[in-house]
């Protein structure tokens, strides 16, 4: 007998870090070199199997552009997990990611699973954020940490598996 869980996930982070690209890679296994910025938010879902559980993700991909920031709260209100995304080639996006975490800590739900995705791993030559620093930060807030590339798919499935595992197994 398989247990089925519905898990809401919200993606947060600066515009252009690759939130929509990560979701599209995970859900549809596609990648676009020139994706339009998200307007408001978009919703997608996908189920995966972890241990003896079927996890059905309801994914809210929020818009990172400044003018939409006040909307984000609507999407993380009752979420089980949040993916905080930054672009490893953009230091400012890393700092912004930490602000999103502070915002979640203040206004988000309790006992939320947080995963940090350092995206655009394929551009590691232009890396502006030290990996050790990012991992230490993730540890300090009890978050999952993964480097990802929506372009190559590196780490993307594992990111969602980690979240599913943390929610079901602990
Ligand atoms: P907003 O919707 O405005 O918040 O942006 P977003 O975070 O959803 O970013 P989006 O997924 O639209 O990606 C922005 C640009 O970065 C796109 O042109 C993508 O092709 C590119 N991009 C996303 N992920 C990667 C990646 O892993 N590697 C590389 N090289 N480019 C990426
Ligand atoms: Mg987007």
UniProtKB/TrEMBL annotation:
User: Which protein are we looking at?
Assistant: Uncharacterized protein
**Full-protein positions shown:** 2 to 171 of 211
User: Which organism is the protein's source?
Assistant: Blepharisma stoltei
- Which of UniProt's keywords are assigned here? Nucleotide-binding
A molecular function annotated in GO for this UniProt entry is:
GTPase activity
């Amino acid at each position: 007998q398989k247990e089925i869980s519905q898990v809401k996930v919200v993606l947060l982070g600066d515009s252009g870090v690759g939130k929509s690209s990560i979701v599209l890679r995970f859900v549809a296994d596609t990648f676009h070199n020139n994706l339009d910025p998200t307007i408001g938010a978009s919703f997608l879902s996908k189920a995966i199997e972890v241990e003896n559980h079927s996890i059905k993700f309801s994914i809210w991909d929020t818009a990172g552009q400044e003018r939409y920031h006040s909307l984000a709260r609507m999407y993380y209100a009752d979420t089980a997990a949040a993916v905080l995304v930054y672009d490893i080639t953009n230091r400012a996006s890393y700092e912004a990611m930490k602000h999103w975490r502070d915002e979640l800590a203040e206004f988000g739900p309790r006992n939320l699973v947080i995963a940090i995705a350092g995206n655009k791993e394929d551009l590691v030559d232009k890396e502006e954020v030290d990996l050790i620093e990012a991992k230490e930060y993730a540890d300090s807030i009890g978050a999952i940490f993964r480097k990802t590339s929506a372009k190559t798919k590196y780490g993307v499935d594992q990111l969602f598996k980690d979240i599913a595992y943390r929610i079901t197994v602990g």
